[in-house]
Amino acid sequence: MSTNHSNKSSQTFKLLLFVIAIPIILIIILIRALNGGGTDPALMTTEAIEDRIAPVARYNLVEVAAADDANREPLNGEGVYKRICFSCHDAGLSGAPKFADAAAWGPRIAKGQDELFTHAIGGFNLMPAKGGDAKLTDDEVKRGVVYMANQAGANWEEPSAAAPAEEAKPDEGAAPAEDAKPAEEAKPEENASQ
Questions:
Q1: Cβ pair 164, 71 in contact under 8 A
Q2: What is the DSSP string of 89-113?
Q3: Domain co-membership, 26 together with 87
Q4: How confident is the model over 147-192, as pLDDT tens digits?
Q5: Half-sphere exposure (Cβ direction) of 135: Cα atoms closer than 13 Å
Q6: Structural domains in the chain (count)
Q7: For 102-135, how does the pLDDT look when each residue is reduced to its tens digit (9 = 90+)?
Q8: Which residue range is the domain that position 121 belongs to?
Q9: Quick check: is 23 in a domain?
Q10: Residue 35 forms part of a structural domain
């Protein structure tokens, strides 16, 4: 009788193992079939992974001498557009009105030059101040705005280039630095601490 009982118990264990193992094996086969049989080793190389997680754009930051910007000729409206504005306004990125699109520029032109100048110089919505080029002068930005608005149907006059600032000259009546007398040293009063 004990043999019967041990046979039944071993058969039950085998049946239970079979019932659990078959669905697990089927699930594994199904997952492999849906995933294409596993991961391609070529996709798991360090180079492939770095390519997939690399930033979309790379910036090459270099120092530019301030003297180069001080000595450059002021840009006209078209020059400003070609230098920075085209990057968003050609494609209409981030809600920017497309270049020469009268329908998109019409409501903006109706608001007037001053408001457009304020937005372009100080930034507006997703547009950074001066279109992201801090080296542009306010007058250059204004010329860029006028150029784009005129291409869309406005008839605004482009602001003229500002005259370069004259170098500051020392006052001829002022005494030269070497003749100036040094200031007297401050002396504490004797009774000040009491």
A1: no
A2: HTTTGGGPPPTT-HHHHHHHHHH-H
A3: no
A4: 999 999 999 998 886 544 444 444 555 555 555 555 565 555 555 5
A5: 16
A6: 2
A7: 999 999 999 999 999 999 999 999 999 999 999 9
A8: 75-151
A9: yes
A10: yes
Taking the alpha carbons at both ends of the chain, their separation in whole angstroms is 115
pTM: 0.51
Which tokens go with 55?
A: 């930033």
Is residue 161 included in any domain, yes or no? no
From residue 61, give the alpha-carbon distance in Å to each of 65, 93, 161: 13, 23, 29
Listed residue (37, 19, 40, 17) closest to 28, CA to CA: 37
Based on the domain organization, do 35 and 101 belong to the same domain?
A: no
Does 90 lie in the same domain as 47? no
Whether residue 33 sits in one domain with residue 101: no
Cβ neighbour number for residue 149 with a 10 Å cutoff: 20
Q: What are phi and psi of 178, to 5 degrees?
A: -70, -20
For tokens 């801090």, what's the residue?
134
Asked whether 106 and 152 are in contact (CB, 8 A), the reply is: yes
Report yes or no on 175 lying in a domain: no
